[in-house]
Design brief:
The complex is a heterodimer.
Chain A (H helix, E strand, L loop, with lengths): L20 H39 L1 E6 L7 H13 L4 E6 L2 H12 L12 E7 L7 H10 L4 E4 L2 H43 L1 H9 L4 H37 L4 H6 L13 H21 L4
Chain B lengths: L21 E5 L6 H8 L11 E2 L2 E2 L8 H5 L2 E4 L11 H5 L1 H5 L8 H10 L15 H13 L5 E5 L7 H16 L3 E5 L3 H7 L3 E5 L2 E4 L10
Parallel strand pairs in B: 1-6, 1-7, 4-5, 5-6
Antiparallel strand pairs in B: 2-3, 7-8
Classes of the chains: A alpha+beta, B alpha/beta.
Chain lengths: ~300, ~220
């Protein structure tokens, strides 16, 4: 069978040779980087949501620690404190915890034997604040003092600040990791571009001597690496989505793990822009590197 | 002209090729023929002296202006420099493609030229599958497809038989007739003699003779 060449149907072939072993190595590295960046992005969103959840949970409540005074029994003092606090504007509900509940709270600290029955220990009042206009710890403290109740108000502000700091640090770490991955991608592409120019010196020289501009040649490498980065970025992103989805499904029944990393389904869309972003970084890096390297060619 | 700290490959050479002229460049191996061609097609820069092409001093030519000048110079390399991953047709079409022309505007020209150099039935072959002579003819087709103002050829008939040598010479003469300045480095004394064209003879990096050259007046 003869395959006649039809010039009218001819279309220019790619000027750079097809991918070789070096390009596969690049694809693999970019896939791994994209995977890591994808997990960082999903983790960043989930971590931020976790910190936000903890903060609103803690900030929406307060605890009043009541000590019995004079002839008051601890239960009566707690009930009185709960009544006083309930009347403060910005409080949704205040409930004195029973002796059993108060003991249960300190149980993990004192062991199964519990506290001796004759030991006086403070009672607690759990206060739920109005989420729209919550009362401050100072408001509660003022009201209790005015009513002559000997109590200490813990509005959890110390924990809130710590959680905010932890959440901020988690978000910053996610962003830093993401930027680091982008920088690594740029460095890898720059290295691959230089390698490509060296390995394909014959092609580059032939193009130069045929009148190709540096920009024309750089565009070939730019397009090659942008396409590779987009493909590898897509693979890495899909892998990250699959892994995060698996984590979400396998931890669905575990409240502690879910509270630590509450991945939402919409978080899985975070790596979606990676193919485009990877292509953009690779294109810019590839072009700049190629243009700089081509200066050494005649 | 010297490479690194090596002795000068070319020295004290002065000549002018007028527009539309046709010259052979002869001389023994190592006499500097290829280096002289490299200087003209801007693959090397002279370490001293002055080279002017199309009225422009190459030492003052900006990098961004080099591609445009190269597009006016067709080169047939001794070692062919074909792109092995591209077909015969793609190799021959390299010049117009780099010049930014649309494929439809040069497809037919490329096909005609390849047929003319005897590669009409090898258009989709890849260079590694070509014989030495076929590679040479492809290199020539690639060099002339853009109808260059200057055509340089380094041993263009080194791998072809006598009949093809004459055919290639006729192509060069034809290009010369339509205005191209032609300079061919060759060892083929028969071809040089049969062409009747003037000769620049290099020996040990110096111009030993050329039309109008008077050895008595040499520096």
């Amino acid at each position: 069978m003869s395959l006649a060449f039809d010039a009218n149907k001819w279309w220019p072939a790619p000027l750079l040779p097809r991918a070789d072993g070096r390009d596969w190595a690049l694809l693999f590295v970019v896939t791994v980087l994209s995977f890591m960046a994808g997990l960082a992005a999903i983790g960043g969103f989930a971590g931020s949501r976790a910190a936000q959840g903890w903060r609103s949970e803690i900030a929406g409540s307060a605890t009043v620690i009541v000590s019995a005074q004079g002839t008051d029994t601890p239960d009566a003092a707690a009930a009185r404190a709960a009544e006083v606090v309930s009347g403060v504007e910005g409080v949704a509900e205040a409930q004195a915890l029973s002796a059993a509940k108060a003991q249960a709270l300190v149980g993990p600290l004192v062991g199964p034997a519990g506290l001796p029955p004759d030991l006086p220990y403070p009672r607690l009042v759990a206060v739920q604040l109005d989420p729209k206009a919550p009362a401050s710890g100072a408001d509660l403290d003022r009201a209790l003092k005015a009513a002559g109740v000997d109590a200490v108000v813990d509005d959890h502000s110390r924990w809130t600040a710590q959680i905010m700091r932890a959440g901020g640090a988690f978000e910053a770490a996610s962003v830093a990791l993401f930027l680091l991955v982008l920088a690594a991608l740029g460095a890898v592409v720059a290295f691959a571009t230089r390698q490509g120019l060296t390995a394909r010196r014959d092609v580059v020289d032939a193009l130069h001597l045929a009148g190709a501009t540096d920009s024309f040649i750089a565009r070939l490498f730019q397009a090659r690496f942008a396409r590779s980065a987009a493909q590898a970025g897509l693979a890495g992103a899909l892998l990250a989505i699959a892994v995060a989805g698996l984590i979400k499904m396998t931890t669905a029944g575990d409240q502690q793990l879910t509270a630590l990393l509450p991945i939402a389904w919409r978080d899985l869309a975070a790596p979606a822009p990676f193919p485009l972003l990877g292509a953009l970084v690779a294109a810019v890096t590839g072009r700049l590197t190629a243009m700089a390297a081509l200066k050494d060619h005649p | 002209m010297r490479y690194g700290r090596e002795p000068e490959v070319l020295k004290d050479i002065s000549f002018e090729l007028t527009r539309g002229s046709f010259h052979f460049l002869t001389g023994p191996s190592g006499s500097g023929k290829s280096t002289l061609l490299k200087l003209i097609y801007l693959a090397e820069q002279a370490t001293r002296g002055r080279i002017e092409i199309f009225g422009q001093d190459l030492a003052l030519l900006k990098r961004k202006d080099r591609p445009m000048m190269r597009r006016r110079i067709g080169v047939v390399f001794q070692e062919f420099r074909l792109l092995d991953h591209l077909s015969v047709f793609d190799n021959a079409a390299l010049g117009p493609r780099i010049a930014g022309r649309k494929p439809a505007s040069y497809r037919a020209d490329v096909a005609d030229l390849l047929a003319w150099v005897g590669l009409g039935d090898r258009m989709h072959a890849m260079p590694p599958a070509l014989s030495g002579g076929e590679k040479q003819r492809l290199a020539i087709a690639r060099a002339v497809i853009n109808r260059p103002d200057i055509l340089l050829a380094d041993e263009p008939t080194g791998n072809v038989d006598d009949a093809m040598s004459l055919r290639i010479l006729r192509l060069f003469v034809e290009l010369n007739r339509v205005g191209a300045t032609v300079l061919i480095a060759s060892h083929d004394n028969d071809l040089v003699a049969r062409s009747g064209k003037p000769v620049l003879n290099l020996e040990a990096g110096q111009l030993a003779s050329h039309p109008g050259f008077d050895p008595e007046m040499a520096p």
